[in-house]
Amino acid sequence: MKTAAIQPAPATGRYATESKLSKNWKLMKKHWQYYALVLLPVAYLVIFKYLPIVGVQMAFRDYNVVDGMWGSKWIGLHYFVEFFKSPLFWDIFGNTLKISVTTMIFTFPTPILLALILNEVRDSFFNRFSQTITLAPHFISVVVMSGMIILFLDPKTGMLPKMMEWVGIEPVNFLASVASFKYVYAVSEVWQHVGYSAIIYLAALAGINPELYEAAKMDGASRFKKILHVDIPGISLVMTILLILQIGELTGVGFEKILLLQNPINQPGSEVIATYVYNVGLVNANYSFGTAIGLFNSVINFILLFAVNWISRRVSENSLW
Amino acid sequence: MNKRNAIRESFGDRSFLMAMYVILILIVISILYPLLHILAASFSNPQDVISGAVTIFPAHPTVMAYETLFKNSQVYTGYANTLFYTVVGTAVQVLFTVLLAYPLSRKEFVGRKVLMMAILLTMFFEGGLIPTYLIVKYLHILDTRWALIIPKALFVWQVIIAVTFFRTSIPDEIHESAQLDGCSDAGFLWRIVLPLSKPIIAVLILMYAVADWNSYFDALIYLTKSELFPLQLVLRNILVLSQVSQLSPSVAYQMRRLHGLSDLLKYALIVVSSAPILIFYPFVQKHFVKGMMIGSIKG
């Protein structure tokens, strides 16, 4: 009995796959134009996204111009070891962590606060006006943003030192200081992107079930209680996801702006892995060395992303996957 | 007792709301003040900028900075180049995005899951700065206008937004009836889907155009000829590296004459380069917000 029942099953299975294959083949022939449409974009992805990924193997080679990225001599982990042993390693690694953690402490909670406040302010003109103004700096280019920071912080003519003088505080040359670089970076990130980052929280707040507010009102909850017990739980999933993503990009963050704000005086506090790849790898043409450091950076980001996602799934049951 | 409680609570709520308003006003001021300060400084004279007499109003209004700026050929070339990179770049990016996203939104496109996976993977794995640079070098497009267009012919995030839009807003019924009428897949995309997709095309154009207008890093690594430089790279040299003498010998001379003109020019440059987007964006703000929403449904 048993064998009889099992016997036909594989046959059906094979029959099913065959028919699925031929069905797919028919679909492909019928819709050949789809493949023509995606041809150019796919070629782009192969050349500019996948070839560089394969090209990462040059981190294990001793790149020279004649043999190129595919044929230069294989030297294994040489450049990784060189980087780990270099006296700069801990400085650069430390700076990367310090700047990104400081930035996260500043940029993670501020959009949430802004969104919660905007959500309370129901006056529609003032609400729209505030949103438009807070969103505006997001569209300023990173070059102009850096230029503004440099102008505003100029110890002789800048706006901020002038204000400090006016209030009676001794003005500081922030950009000529190793210690304050991370704060300059973090605060300017908040200033530029807080409005943009708040949008996603506003959307999440708008999606909260109105019945919950009704219920809270019936229970006599104050505005503050309502924020605490309805708003914040309502956006906690979005909060977790964005936090995980932010931590996953921890060591890759904001490299273009750091590069622009870097000067010889603050460099001990502003050289991060990504700028080091640019300065040493590209500008000085140490291609293999630069690629090795870049690869190290990606690996760290990957480990962080997985670790945080795992912790989050354990702790809050919210996770990316 | 009950009544008193209700009044006290509403008083608490009212003061809480008042506090929210005050905080929001402070936030708005802290963002608006620097922007207005730059605008005011650009219309001031050099002495006022240095002495700090400029607040959000110029002490002695003058258009001196703009006169000097518009005499300068580098700023003109940069502007023209940026217009070219933005217009051509956006056109290519929107075209590539639609070409890739539309088939990915169709269920009868065999292999779409594999392709989607391959696209998503590039968000997490990337070759990094140097391998990408070397590929561009091997293709012999370094130091050509193509270097700022081809290597960023599409952004993955925008493709995802477009796929989500096509999938949710092109009804299957239209597709079936068009097929019965003998409409080809490409013909359907061109004649039916595109006219129905104006909102997403608008969102894509906006996102790509702003990114193209503002980008400098590709130009920094791929270009060495100054006549190809986009505005942002010209700005970087002047704003960040303070190579004001680059503007022109006559400006360098004037600078020595008018101490502080260099700072003034920087303020004017910031205005000239950012004004187009900042004036334009409030009108299209809702499209931007919509684009972010479509993206986040999927993400």
UniProtKB/TrEMBL annotation, chain B:
Q: Which InterPro entries match?
A: MetI-like, MetI-like_sf
A GO term from the CC aspect: plasma membrane
Q: Does the keyword Ion transport apply?
A: no
- Which CDD domains does the record associate with it? TM_PBP2 (cd06261)
Predominant localisation class: membrane
Q: Which family does it belong to?
A: Belongs to the binding-protein-dependent transport system permease family.
Its protein name is Carbohydrate ABC transporter permease
The record lists the organism as Cohnella zeiphila
